[in-house]
Model the fold of this input.
Amino acid sequence: MNKYKYNILVTGASGFIGKSLIKKLISMNYYVIGLVREKSVLNRSPFYSEVLIDDIGKSLSNINISQIDIIIHLAAITHDHNKKYEDYLNTNVNGVTNVVNLGAKISAKLIIMLSSIKVNGEGFYQNNIKYNEKSIPQPSDFYGKSKLESENILIEQCKKNNISYVILRPPLIYGDGVKGNLLNLMKYIDRNIPMPIIKSKNIRSMLSINNLIEALVKIINNKNTHNDMYLISDNIPVSPKNLYNNISKNLNKKLYTFTINKYLLKIFLWPIGKSYLIDKISSSLIIDNTKIKKALKWTPSVSFDQEVKNMVKGYIKKSGK
Done:
């Protein structure tokens, strides 16, 4: 592996972000090793290999690799309301400890960890206030709390082992291959299911997957960003209606909407345990991305319109339409 500029280990390599990131790193002739639970088609590249693991929350001491310069830690349990806090601790917190221990064993110089804006909160109580790096953490769910704890462990353990670190807190990431709520949203609009519009002028920061990957590549090559934490997002927050309109336009579908009272909708969704979603779509969550743009001398280059187009195109291709 010595002939490559950087040898990079990526956890969560088979996920939405991991797949796109690895394709970019491979295209730049970096050598990448992915930690995965099952083999992927990316393994055909001479610039990529995979190491199978069962659970990142368990010790990684038996992994036999060497000469890794950088670890990009993406693996995490995100928003699964069927999981207990112990599950989040195992993957998100114990996983970080195991990754740092592995980094120390293989003499890694840098660990970049993808955290979440959920460490700061949901915007429920500070509506219309921008989050920045000085904002006091106010995580409101298991995911946010576990990510805050994992950040603290990463900083402590990296300092102890003389490894540099960078922590990124993104909002909702969107683009080709997205899963979860955004994938469901595309399916609903594709099936002409009417979408609720709540009387609220809320806007929320989002992050294009291509803008995230741009930033990660720049961090790899910019030591001035090391040993710090950054909030990262696209430049312009968007409204739910704008998101609906862009998806429907790219699907070539007529958008059906209906206006509903926020509290009535919460009551309607309460029996199925989904009332928490209403606060998310009715409150603003705005990120100030000034610090990372200055540190990297960079600005997000992929527009919201273009990334939604990529996302919908990927959805159409995968659905075989």
